[in-house]
Fold Fatty acyl-CoA reductase.
Amino acid sequence: MDVDMNDERDRIAPMFKDRHVLITGGTGFLGKALIEKLLRCCPEIGQIYLLVRAKKGKSPRQRLEDIFANPLFETVKGLRGLDTLISQCTVIGGDVTEPELAISPEDRRLIIENISIIYHCAATIRFDETLKKAVMLNTRGTKYMIDLAKQCKKLDMFGYVSTSYCHLNEKLLLEKPYPPPADPHKVIKAVEWLEEGVVDGMTKKILGDCPNTYAYTKALAEALVVESMDEIPAVIFRPSIVIPTWREPIPGWTDNINGPVGLLIGAGKGVIRSMYCNSDGYGDYLPVDFAVSAMCVCTWNYVGNKDHKRNIYHLVSSAEIKVSWEGIIERGKWIVSNKIPLNGVLWYPGGSMKRTRWEHNLAAFFFHWIPAFVIDCLLYCFGYKPILWRIHQRIAKGFEVFEYYANNQWDFDNATILYLRTIINEEEKVKFKIDAGGVEIQEYFENCIRAARWYILKETDDTIPTARRHMRVMWWVDKICKTLIYGGLIYYITKAFYSMLFASV
């Protein structure tokens, strides 16, 4: 490997020049960010092929237009024009859960003859997905993609997007392969043969110590990729919890409420008042623009520098930035209460994390379930559809998954990324940022809440004054109610005390 450290020109984008790339999962959160990054920062890239499930009534151009309609692409559309972007992308109808990927013979030949780089991002990220569906998509789908990659005549790299949270028995995860929880080939055959109901009945026993089907099936898929490394140039990306953008191309952009964003919105709306969580613990978060930049740098190192010894990459942040669970919630509550209020707040943001389950269950009963029941009754009486009880059912179900991760701790070695920081030049460090320099946590969370307000909740800036007035009203309501409740408790406790005292005299 020969890396010229004196070359201050960008060497990463030119490596992609005229190379054709296939991306699965391009309609997902990470997939869209990767497409945008390649089109904006690597304009001379060859054709980008997107494997997407067929959608009746929509042509390939319409599917592309749906992707490019996302606000994420406004910057690159302004720079290059929508028609140019569409001409550089090709939709391939297919489905990773189907045999042969449900790709037509013509499209398969197109891929085999042209593709140089594959990014396999498609996966179900639902932790409560049924085991059969998770195996079919996350594990068997990866096997099918590997089979396709083996046929590609110009393949320089097959990049599998895994997760740093798939080997949960390892408290310190190293950038190396780990044995799978079972033989992936046997699991695939068993799941193919058995009915879904039968698999559901066996799921708990099959998973063993693994807490959910997501981690289990991603670990199995990793084993398939490792197994194939003798036949194809394959790498594994292990990103941690991928969260909204830090800065590029829109600060705080996201298209979902997974992870911390959901907690911020729930707490900011006054709906989430209690969580069973080690408040001092922390998760490992990675802004999605950091994730896709790292994927580009790793690809350049593997393909351009031919550094094939480094083929497992941890895309993580907690070695540099540790934000506790309590820190996230407290920051979110302060921002929503003082700077960027949300519309339709049900109660003034408050509550706390509980270190024991019984404390949380007690608090949830009084501050989640009773208010939900009362408010839904009022909604029903006024002719509206009750919704809050159902929302808290979904929150409680989400907490079942969250609690496992919030009350355990993992750390990750990222020596390869640290090495890559030493071989990229100043221009590349700016264009493909893979370090935490300049990241301000408070500013970042403000951008996340502002962007969630715009893109998720569809709340425009002109509603902020009204939201701020409503927040002040809810502050008074919160204080008055607490005063009445605590005053009532003190009154009845005092009354009971004096009754007992006089009764004993």
Remarks:
- The two ends are 93 Å apart (CA to CA).
- Residues 325-406+455-502 form one domain.
